[in-house]
Write the structure tokens for this entry.
Amino acid sequence: MIKAEVNQTLLPRTTQVQAVWLAKLLHLAAAALRLRGTHTLSIAFVDQATMRRLNRTYRDKDRVTDILSFAKVGESGSLGELVLAWPFVRNQAKKNK
């Protein structure tokens, strides 16, 4: 099982990810990974300006990217942190249908 710690405070309510959809996705991911026990995953949905700043800070690339991932070394049961530029990800998904 994957327990998510979700932060969407930077997104307008109309573009936030629905909890039901996220729960289904996490369930599928846990099954695919054959996880046993409870694991935590931090997920932050951010706007494009925030993602550009994070990408510049951590990867020295001054542009928006769709997702950044960070490992949480030494934390038992932690799967790390994902940061998604949600509007950017949604637009990519629409283009690649």
About this structure: Residues 19-33 form the longest helix (15 residues). The chain has a mean pLDDT of 87. The CA atoms of residues 19 and 25 lie 10 Å apart. The two ends are 29 Å apart (CA to CA).
